[in-house]
Amino acid sequence: MVKESPPSLLSCWSGLDLADVFAMPELIYGYHPLREALRHRPHAVSRVLVGKGRRGGRRQTIEELCRRHGIELRSVPEGELNRLSQGVHNGFVAELVESAAESTAVHHDLELVVLLEDIQDPRNLGAILRICEGAGVGKVMVRDRGSAPISPAVVKTAAGATEWLDVERIVNTAASLETLKKEGFWVYGTDPGGLPPWQIDLRGKVVLCFGGESKGLRARSKKVCDELIGLPMRGAVESLNVSAAAAAILFEAVRQRLDRDTLPAAEDSG
Fold first, then answer.
1. Residue 268 falls within a domain, yes or no?
2. Does 169 lie in the same domain as 38?
3. What does the buried/exposed string (b/e) look like for 104-141 if buried means 16 or more CB atoms within 10 Å of the residue's CB?
4. 14 versus 164: which is more confidently predicted?
5. Residue 69, exposed/middle/buried by CB under 10 A (0-12, 13-18, 19+)?
6. pLDDT value at position 265?
């Protein structure tokens, strides 16, 4: 079972008028909206409130998602949920984290997207999220199965980046990439045998894909990519840690995007 904490904050909500409610953090209500939020944007959910009388498969699903992502869950009287929600809640209400991403969207490049697949080490995931935020990435897509959840360890390693980044959990990497390609994005995957990033035009609408620590990107994901990028290794070490490789490739993209009139080296030499 998910550990339930005492309703200290909730007790302050009883009897509030409408103006007070709007002053509170943003809420979502209903089973399906909450489930999708927990699946795709768990870092945006602060706590979940479930009606005390709710049992069965739906509650189990919400409990499992909360447990996986380390999100607080409380059992509360249905009357409290009625006061908080402005629609049919079906026994489920969630409080959302106040997002800093919207207020700082001007600093993020919406045409630069990063996709992460099978990053299992929380420290690697946190480090990559920190790098993405520093590079001004517009969105980070994380494949749900096979990837580490955005846990306290990830948040700590990311040093606050999770509060600023637009992070979305996805189910199917290939399908998500195909959708982005239809929207005009060029998709670049990482592979040791790929071209150096300074020989590829990384300006415009670009998706950079990074695979897991042991096997890299999945074969199906590579097939969807328009080109593969690799870092030429000149020493005895065969490869870099995925977060180090992400930093090198992402900031080459930043260099190119800051100087849009300068073509990559491969094009200059023509």
1. no
2. no
3. eeeebbeebbbbbbbbebbbbbbbbbbbbbebbbbbbb
4. 164
5. middle
6. 54
pLDDT digits (tens, 9 = 90+) for 36-56: 788 877 878 888 999 888 888
Burial class (CB in 10 A: 0-12, 13-18, 19+), 181: middle
Report the SS3 class of residue 28: strand
Give how many domains the chain has, as a whole number.
2
Q: pLDDT of 125-140, one tens digit each? A: 999 999 999 999 999 9
217-258 pLDDT per residue, tens: 999 999 999 999 999 998 888 888 999 999 999 999 999 999
Domain boundary among 79, 96, 113: 96
Q: What is the DSSP letter of 86?
A: S
Residues comprising the chain, all counted? 270
Edge-to-edge order in the sheet of strand 72-76: 27-29, 92-96, 45-51, 72-76
- Spatial distance between the Cα atoms of 67 and 3, rounded to a whole number of angstroms: 9
Of residues 212 and 87, more confidently modeled: 212
What pLDDT score does 105 carry?
A: 43
DSSP, collapsed to helix, strand or coil, labels residue 179 as helix
Q: Measure the CA–CA gap between 162 and 156, rounded to whole angstroms.
A: 9
Given the structure tokens 């009883």, which residue do they identify? 14
**Residue 27: CATH number of its domain:** 3.30.1330.30
Domain stop point among 65, 96, 127: 96
Residues 211 and 141 in one domain: yes
